[in-house]
Design brief:
Distance between the termini: 31 Å
Bound molecules: (S)-3-Hydroxyhexanoyl-CoA
Helix content: 40-55%
Number of strands: 20
Largest sheet: 8 strands, mixed
Mean pLDDT: 94
Low-confidence stretches: none
Strand order of the largest sheet: 13-12-11-14-15-16-17-18
Length: 712
């Protein structure tokens, strides 16, 4: 290799090591980096002109993004994976045991093995930039921090804070990292290098590292630094992990165990537990699936939904949002807080606008109370939001998102009004979950600029966005919508303009089937429990209450109209709506609510539906009916080109409806089971419950040809 990965300069006795992995957008600790690092490091250790080391990244937005995940996919056996972990531990032990102080200067993403690297250094200076994020996301890949992270993090920031980071895999920004004691100094990026050098000089003179003590105080003494207290912490963390993972994800519990062994039996024992468990986890099916999802999501970030080079994104500075209801306000608030654009919110009367603006400020208010935003940033971002009841101020918007009532005529009228004032080249997006874009754009002066952006509720939290080009939408418009969706923090899939698009399409038969089960008297809790056990975050009945039963009624009506008998709404929705049960928002649904809090299932539902509760349906049957209804629909929709690839379909299902990530998505599930087996089961379900289960042609063909969605 011509280009070295590590550049070393000697500045006044301090070796400044800059890591810059050639040809890669981010630094990662791959085999080549590890090998070169070992050499560089041995030279530094031996060099008497070096008193201390500063470690920096040459990449603009990353310190180190972790171990190379690509290498994990090559690993064939548990033993091989164990070696990866053991080698990582050994390399970082060398840093930790060096007799010269090593200072990490952290700017940008510092994740996984990258943070473990920084933890092995003797001192950490962080840049206060927003790009700086530190975390151990390994559990999100079904792994655990396998290069000493389970050992060094709790020793540095205390047990409870460390478990918060390790078990959820969530990263923290620079300021929080400083509060936790994860970085010793926090400075603007412009003086990061200088500060790190000064620290290195200081540390090479003073033999003791002075560090503000954290994890102290009364609770720290009680829980972090006392074996009985720690026992309590382990047991509570274990309980919480078990209830959150439902036993489907082995990594967090394994990580908890490695932390415990390390603190109670010493670092050496902890490291052994760590590499053993890392080896075991790396070859699990769960980890393989989660890693596939990581690569799928990463690839999606570069896919604009049109052939490369065919469209150019408009840079959005000002946007309009029409309709200040829950959806509109959510879109406005997320656009301001994530993309930092000017947003003008329009509705028909000032009272509504005011309510919308207040709701739109929600994410900012939260940022302020959680100290993610400074008062200054808060004020600046709040000032980006404005409201109006007329058409003023839209003449310079590059993007308008319409989120009015789900009614074709209203939507067309709003579009016509905006076409009058919008500047040439701007994009008009409609947020609809059911109405075809083609029909909204029909008769528009510029249908090429009209597109669907289907956000999910609540907008701030839901990670998915479906972008739906109409028949005449041009490539620039598509790319603009996709890029802006990403700026709003969403994972974006571009889907075909077909009723229900992707997410609601595959959800529809699943929800219907839950309705049929209900109509047979199946207990609400049995239906929901079965699906949460399968791995969904909530069951279909609870989901119905969340979405709103009236909303579901409307959507299922549209689907029935489009697809006929197969998607005929289950005969329960009308009765529920007729009884004034609209779900959580009305305080009455299939569950009971008291003061906005969800209580148990509402047993009076059975009487309303004129059925007896029947306990005898087995969980296997419930699962099979619900799941296979969705699998069949998913295969059919793929066959119709609703999604552009199985990858988009699976990621859409995972991020849009919480399809269990460890199962890889509905299309992966079909591959795992084999199309032939899915066809068999569907046929027997059709024989028992009716033709709605008839396997679709696409699936039957796939079974005949023994084909898979994914070639691997
Ligand atoms: C670990 O560290 C285990 C250790 O505890 C123990 C080991 C012994 N590996 O996402 P982007 C690639 S587990 C391989 O588009 P962004 C990515 O695939 C690891 N590749 O940019 C893409 O490649 P390409 C723990 C990686 O700015 C390119 O870099 N770490 C890795 O939107 C650009 O990525 C993680 O889980 C990696 N570690 O986001 C972090 N990281 O151009 C995973 C990135 O060929 N990474 N790539 O398509 C991320 O979360 C995001 O990529 C990151 C950048 C936030 C870093």
């Amino acid at each position: 290799r011509l280009m070295p990965i590590f550049q070393v300069t000697n500045e006044d006795g301090v070796a400044v090591v800059t890591m810059d992995l050639p040809g890669e957008p981010v630094n990662k600790l791959n085999a080549a980096a590890k090998a070169e690092f070992t050499q560089v490091f041995a030279a530094l250790a031996a060099d008497s002109n070096v008193k201390a080391v500063v470690f920096l990244s040459g990449k603009p937005g990353t310190f180190i993004a972790g171990a190379d995940i690509e290498e994990f996919t090559q690993v064939k056996s548990r033993e091989e994976a164990e070696v990866l972990s053991r080698d990582g531990q050994a390399m970082l032990d060398d840093i930790a045991h060096l007799s010269k102080p090593v200072v990490a200067a952290i700017h940008g993403v510092c994740l996984g093995g990258g943070l473990e690297f920084a933890l092995a250094c003797h001192y950490r200076v962080g840049s206060s930039d927003d790009k700086t994020q530190l975390g151990l996301p390994e559990v999100q890949l079904g792994l655990l921090p396998g290069a000493g992270g389970c050992q060094r993090l709790p020793r540095l920031i205390g047990l409870r804070a460390a478990l918060d980071m390790i078990l959820a895999g969530k990263s923290v920004r620079a300021r929080k990292a400083y509060r936790l004691g994860l970085v010793d100094e926090l400075v603007p990026q412009s003086i990061l290098r200088r500060t790190a050098l000064a620290a290195a000089h200081r540390l090479s003179r003073d033999s003791v590292v002075k560090r503000a003590k954290r994890g102290t105080g009364f609770m720290g003494l009680l829980l972090d630094r006392n074996p009985l207290g720690r026992r309590l912490v382990y047991s509570q963390a274990g309980k919480s992990v078990r209830s959150k993972t439902g036993g489907h994800y082995p990594a967090p519990l394994a990580a908890l165990d490695c932390v415990r062994v390390g603190l109670e039996k010493g670092m050496a024992a902890g490291l052994v537990a760590e590499h053993r468990e890392f080896g075991r986890l790396a070859v699990t099916d769960v980890s393989r699936k989660l890693v596939q999802i990581f690569f799928g999501t990463t690839a999606l970030k570069k896919d604009d939904g049109v052939p490369r080079g065919t469209g150019t994104a408009l840079e959005i500075r000002r946007m309009g949002v029409v309709g200040s209801g829950f959806m509109g306000a959510g879109i406005a608030g997320t656009a301001v807080s994530r993309a930092q654009v000017e947003v003008r919110l329009k509705d028909t009367d000032l009272g509504r606008v005011a309510i919308g603006l207040k709701a739109a400020r929600g994410p900012l208010d939260k940022g302020l109370t959680r100290r993610r935003l400074t008062k200054y940033d808060y004020a600046r971002q709040v000032a980006l939001l404005s409201g109006t009841t007329d058409m003023t101020g839209f003449g310079r918007s590059e993007l308008v998102v319409e989120a009015v009532f789900e009614d074709l005529e209203v939507k067309r009228q709003v579009l016509a009004e905006f076409e009058e004032v919008l500047p040439g080249g701007s994009v008009y997006a409609t947020n609809t979950s059911t109405i075809p874009i083609e029909r909204i754009a029909d008769g528009a002066a510029h249908p090429e600029r009209v597109i669907g952006m289907h956000f999910f509720s609540p907008v701030e939290k839901m990670p998915l966005l479906e972008v739906i080009p109409g028949k005449e939408t041009n490539a620039d418009t598509i790319v603009t919508a996709v890029h802006f969706g990403r700026r709003m923090g969403k994972t974006v899939i571009v889907v075909r303009d077909h009723p229900g698009f992707w997410v609601n399409r595959i959800l529809s038969p699943y929800m219907n089937e839950a309705g049929y089960l209900l109509k047979e008297g199946t207990p609400i809790e049995a239906i929901d429990r079965t699906m949460t056990r399968y791995g969904f975050p909530v069951g279909p009945i609870a989901l119905l209450d969340e979405v709103g039963i009236d909303v579901a009624q409307k959507a299922s009506g549209v689907m029935y109209q489009a697809f006929g008998e197969r998607l005929r709404p289950a005969p329960v929705i009308d009765a529920l709506v007729g009884d004034g049960r609209l779900g959580r928002k009305s305080g009455r649904g299939l569950y009971r609510y008291e003061k906005g809090k969800k209580k148990g299932p509402d047993q009076s539902v059975y009487r309303l539906l004129g059925v007896q509760r029947r306990e005898e349906v087995s969980p296997e049957t419930i699962e099979e009916r619900l799941l296979y209804a969705m699998l069949n629909e998913a295969a059919m929709a793929v066959g119709e080109g609703v999604v552009r690839s199985p990858r988009d379909g699976d990621i859409g299902a995972i991020f849009g409806i919480g399809f269990p990530p460890f199962r890889g998505g509905p299309l992966r599930v079909i591959d795992t089971l084999s199309a032939a087996r899915v066809v068999d089961v569907l046929q027997s379900l059709a024989a028992m419950y009716g033709p709605r289960f008839t396997p679709c042609d696409a699936l039957v063909e796939q079974a005949k040809a023994n084909r898979k969605f994914y070639p691997d």
